[in-house]
């Protein structure tokens, strides 16, 4: 039928039928015209109110979703556009009561409808979440709608007009886009695939409406295993649906279909989870997910991970939901790929950094090793050139010779290593009596080892056959191992053994030295690596000795192993095959060339410097150049402590300094620290790189010890450059000199710092004298002020007692301010007098029971201020050798402060105790009161420094100054740590008397 014919039919129907208002309206109009309304609750159509007919005509004619609820029961009447909202409720919903049709959501929609039906205003609701029954599913839906009253013929509310738009797709899409955006943002900083998986699972599981659970598995193609690295939604579930590790087989009948997803990478819908895995956990709204999807995640065309995700039991798996899972998989795959790339880049960067560290260590070590002998050579030559005959003789000539040999040994070691690296080291293997050769090489160390007080054992019996090896390289192997053993063995013995066992010859070099920490054993043969902090005779070395030995052993077809117990010693064992089958034929000879004569000499000369000359104090000898009497007088025969682990360098420095000053030497930082604490020197001249306690450690230890804290310290180092100099100066050194240096420059700097030190001492004495005068003056003035203040206080009290009633309110206020100021001034004067007495009185030390004293003071504070109830805890056994009167004053001030500033609440606490700090036990007084900002910590012990006003807390600003003076008189330190609102802790030390 054409449009014109349809129009004519509608017009004819409208003019002749009582349901003419239902004309048109599409399928719903046709359904309503065919309905026998007499059998419905609305009754025959002829009896319908005019207002109902009019509004229903409007509804049917609209292309926008509309619902008309009519009458007290709100009977359903709707148009074609509204039908999809009903899901499977149509057509049964036509003319049915709203409470029946929408039973599952009537607890939400009913009150809103009733409020309008009862005469309330129209409503508007946007994106309301409703779970509508659709078949067996409670479907998650969202709607924007309004309820408007429809007038009846009687003027009352006849029904409601519900205009509605379903926004489910919009809300779900926005939610999913937000999740993907959050995933990209939060996972962007992931440093590894595992971290990216954890972030992804956390973000995805936050969207529980779309993803009831997520499981992320990383796949290892080599092992064929997938292991769970992250999860969301099922953290308390340990059932079969969440295996921790899966061996992916070609055919899988149960569990997740990893094999299928691996063979043909695509998403797989996993049906009926309960049948496959048994009961799975409930999701939101007490519904179990029944389906899941398994998504393979690829990188560079290969599957690297799997994402297993649950499907919402409140959504149908339609195309829109499927596209969401694919987008999620793509995003997760991207963040995993980014994290993997970052991790790979990080590993590359770490490898480059390791190479850079090795290079830096190499140049640092080699620089140090070269600079020390160069300093000696240049210094000795410079000294010789200044003599009339320009001759170098005696000990100076021997030192120059030793330094030249040491440089030659260093250069040869570096060249050997470079040749090995380049594959150009020429090796010649010949049959050798390895027992005789080893005994000959090892015996060269006997005299040196025994001179150092160590036992030396050689157990190298003749072997049944000769062994093919390179004698020159075997010499380096044996001498390097012996040199290493001697360097790190301070007591006990060194033994060398040789045995033939099962086609192998085994050389063992065993010692009872400092041993190797467990964490360093795996790196002991790394080039340029040195174990920091190990006790030894010297810090010298390039860090290539053991690495060179290992490479030489490998070139012989052998192995090098080490076993060690820290603090008990080490054993290095070299194993070489006794046959020649493994050696290149072109490099094997019938007869070996003997090692060059004197090959052990550089090793022996090097090692001999580690045990020193035995001379500690250098007496004055005639100087090379005459020193003026005035300069000698100014120098005052100051004591200079020279510290260096190289004996030649110590001797050279001592020879330079002894014409002008008294010189004492020490072979390392620990020995120097002991000597400096026994008798503080006037200046310390120290090398930086030393075994045990290095130059920086010595510097810090001297600065922390009050008697040596002001001693000038000059550091000598082979580390050149601005950074090295700044590091030395920032650590607290007075000067920093780089090797090699000119002798005259060294002498000038030592002279300058000794002169500055003398001036500082004189200034300190002058300041001390001025301070004593000021203290005397303040004591005298404070004492004299007490009389006038007593008079002011007495007369003001008499005025108040006798004439207060004659004063007006302002006069009484002024009188109270005079009395308050008088009391405060009296407190300040008493505090100043107390401080002066403490400073001027002699120090009488005895054993003080700090625990008992602190408890007595706390009881007294409680009696003075019973309203403040603080829980107090004092550690048992606190004692110190100190002046009991001064310690009492110290505790009164610290505990008084804690009492005053601690909280008035029931949780207020004060603690007194002792705890370890930086290797020493320190006393503390701790409270949980108002605290203070650490920005003010430095000014706490300044006179009259207060962090709070009188209105908040009364005080004089003298208490902490008193504490500082008492601690200083006992040779200790005092400091504080705090934070606003969280209390404060005051720490102090008291130097014990021997």
Question: Which helices and strands occur, and which strands form pairs?
Answer:
Blueprint: H1 3-16, H2 26-34, H3 50-61, E1 66-70, E2 75-78, H4 98-101, H5 106-117, E3 123-134, E4 137-151, E5 157-166, H6 168-186, H7 193-205, E6 214-220, E7 225-232, E8 245-247, H8 258-263, E9 268-270, H9 273-277, E10 292-299, E11 302-310, H10 319-385, H11 394-422, E12 430-432, H12 434-443, H13 446-451, E13 455-459, E14 467-469, H14 471-487, E15 493-501, E16 504-511, H15 545-555, E17 559-565, E18 569-577, H16 601-608, E19 617-618, H17 629-635, E20 639-643, H18 647-657, E21 662-666, H19 669-678, E22 683-687, H20 695-704, E23 713-717, H21 722-731, E24 735-738, H22 743-803, H23 809-840, E25 846-849, H24 850-864, E26 871-874, E27 879-882, H25 884-901, E28 909-917, E29 920-927, H26 959-969, E30 974-978, E31 984-988
Parallel strand pairs: 13-15, 20-21, 20-22, 22-23, 23-24, 26-28
Antiparallel strand pairs: 1-2, 1-5, 3-4, 4-5, 6-7, 6-11, 7-8, 9-10, 10-11, 12-14, 15-16, 16-18, 17-18, 19-21, 25-27, 28-29, 29-31, 30-31
Helix pairs in contact: 6-7, 6-10, 7-10, 10-11, 11-15, 11-16, 12-14, 14-15, 19-20, 22-23, 23-26, 24-25, 25-26
